[in-house]
């Protein structure tokens, strides 16, 4: 590791490869695997996309056309589906990059001016009960009537709202039946998609019947879990965290009992304390809610964040650490010695989910692939 970085993210290629293999074991040989790499690959960096393909993914999923074009310009040639909304005028432009687009607006066909609508690679999204993007199932007959005669979608898909609910399968089963009903309606009108896909990470594990022609896997490929209960249930799958987040000790000092730390004097040390200053803060993506709550690893010991975190700095109690030196490594997420700070731990302390913890790490921080 170069010593020039004061804060950086490490991406384990071996863990990433392991996770692709672990997911593949859950799929039939003919089922395609889409690696979802939207939002800076959940904070892991755009180069992760190429690694997923190298290790066995078939498709990539992104949020918007700019993410897709960036991947094409990086030399990626595999199919890319834009899962979010794309303005019609940009769909016309995006055709030159051989991109797939999600649609759910019946009026879009009148706005596609270049060539014929059937020349586009479009995936119809159906809202089976999540109440987000998609054509509601009850509106599907009206939608189909407005399609150009003989039109075929490359893909049709939907998304589960709570496939991670391990106690009550009523709603996932309902959504599954709604998707089956929608496919039947489309078939009755002569619309037979090449690709049917509904399962994301949680349904990958809990609803094997929803795998269809392709699964869209995000968080599992990064070695993270939807919840502690979910992790406990499926830990035998053997996925491993891909990301570690590290910084450096840039100053040390001793302060007396009662000394205030940080903005607002929200905390005073309760005894004479040795503190370390780390060059990372909420600008870098470390949640400000973790002020006086988060813990980092220095010299193999857990060191609590004390006082209110700053934009680019935090203060930690290093009294329990050993012979700490300036520029020593501090681990924000990852392992050091026998200790391990996980994204799930930070999520629990922040009142959120691991997805948010990693995806909010500042994209400008260096990503190092090891």
Entry summary:
By secondary structure, the protein is α/β, with parallel strands linked by helices. Helices cover about 25% and strands about 25% of the residues. The termini are close together.
Any overview of this molecule?
The chain is built from eleven helices and 21 strands. The chain has helices at residues 13-24, 38-42, 47-54, 65-73, 88-94, 140-145, 170-188, 201-206, 228-234, 343-350, 354-359; strands spanning 7-11, 32-36, 59-62, 80-82, 100-103, 122-127, 135-136, 155-157, 195-197, 214-217, 243-248, 251-255, 260-261, 267-268, 273-278, 295-298, 301-306, 314-317, 329-336, 339-341, 367-369. The radius of gyration is 24 Å and the shape is elongated. Strands 1, 11, 12, 15, 16, 17, 18, 19, 20 and 21 form a ten-stranded mixed β-sheet that branches. Strands 2, 3, 4, 5, 6, 7, 8, 9 and 10 form a nine-stranded parallel β-sheet that branches. The protein folds into two domains: 13-237, Alanine racemase (TIM Barrel, Alpha-Beta Barrel); 243-341, Lyase, Ornithine Decarboxylase, Chain A, domain 1 (Beta Barrel). Helix content is 25%, strand content 24%. The mean pLDDT is 95. With 370 residues, the protein is of the alpha/beta class.
């Amino acid at each position: 590791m170069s010593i020039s970085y004061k804060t950086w993210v490490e991406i384990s290629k071996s863990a990433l490869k392991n996770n692709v293999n672990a997911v593949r074991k859950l799929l039939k040989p003919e089922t395609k695997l889409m690696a979802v790499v939207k939002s800076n690959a959940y904070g892991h960096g755009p180069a992760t996309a190429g690694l997923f393909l190298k290790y066995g993914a078939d498709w990539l999923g992104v949020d918007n056309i700019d993410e897709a074009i960036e991947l094409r310009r990086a030399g990626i040639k595999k199919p890319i589906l834009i899962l979010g909304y794309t303005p019609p005028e940009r769909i016309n432009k995006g055709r030159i990059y051989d991109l797939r687009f999600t649609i759910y607006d019946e009026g879009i066909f009148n706005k596609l001016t270049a060539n014929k609508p059937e020349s586009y690679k479009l995936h119809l999204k159906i809202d089976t009960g999540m109440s987000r993007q998609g054509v509601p199932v009850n509106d599907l007959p009206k939608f189909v009537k407005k399609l150009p005669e003989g039109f075929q979608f490359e893909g049709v898909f939907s998304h589960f709202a709570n496939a991670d609910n391990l106690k009550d399968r009523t709603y996932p089963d309902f959504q599954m039946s709604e998707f089956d009903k929608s496919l039947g309606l489309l078939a009755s009108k002569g619309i037979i998609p090449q690709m049917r896909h509904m399962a994301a990470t949680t349904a990958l594990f809990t609803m094997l019947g929803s795998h269809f022609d392709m699964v869209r896997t995000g968080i599992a490929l990064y070695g993270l879990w939807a919840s502690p209960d979910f992790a406990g249930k499926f830990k035998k799958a053997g996925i491993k965290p891909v990301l570690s987040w590290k910084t450096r000790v840039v100053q040390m000092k001793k302060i007396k009992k009662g000394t205030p730390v940080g903005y607002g004097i929200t905390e005073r040390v309760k005894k004479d304390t040795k503190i370390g200053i780390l060059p990372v803060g909420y600008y870098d993506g470390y949640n400000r809610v973790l002020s006086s709550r988060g813990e980092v690893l220095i010299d193999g010991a857990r060191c609590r964040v004390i006082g209110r975190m700053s934009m680019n700095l935090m203060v930690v109690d290093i009294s329990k650490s050993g012979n700490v030196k300036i520029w020593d490594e501090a681990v924000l997420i990852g392992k050091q010695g026998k200790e391990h700070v996980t994204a799930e731990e930070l999520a629990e302390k922040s009142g959120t989910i691991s997805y948010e913890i990693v995806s909010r790490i500042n994209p400008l921080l260096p990503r190092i692939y090891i």
